[in-house]
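Protocol step 4 of 6: structure prediction from sequence.
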Amino acid sequence: MKFNDTIMGAALLALALSILQTVMQYPVIPGQNIGPGAFPGMLAGLLALCAVLLIIKGLKAKQHEAWFEVGGWVKSWFHLRNFLITVAGLLFYIYFSDRLGFLICASLIVGVMMWALKVRTKLIVPIAVISSLVIHIIFYKGLRVPLPWGILSPIQW
């Protein structure tokens, strides 16, 4: 898909302004010239500058340029199906990860994606489970990111 630069610039400008509004509400640290919002605020300002430049570029572009063009992949059932499976997997994780847990949700999502990509059937379950376990260990133990355990809470380590 291709969006006109004016549309993308406007979206990035809205994002930058929302970031700036958020960091302005961060508390000030007494005795410090630089607070917790300084770095995100600076990046949001740079993002806003780039967004304005993108909007100007889009407005100066040819008048015949479309606001939105659908890519060729949308006409391919294989690509469209894989896109929909990816979106469905994300929604499945959002709605069911607290109840089922990361390990079960991730294994199911990876398994379905591998099935859609026509991976050999006997490899799907072991790869899905092992990759989910590795990701869980990296995030849960290595990075200390709390992942939901869901129904596996009794065996939590």
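Step 5 (inspection) to follow. The chain has a mean pLDDT of 91.
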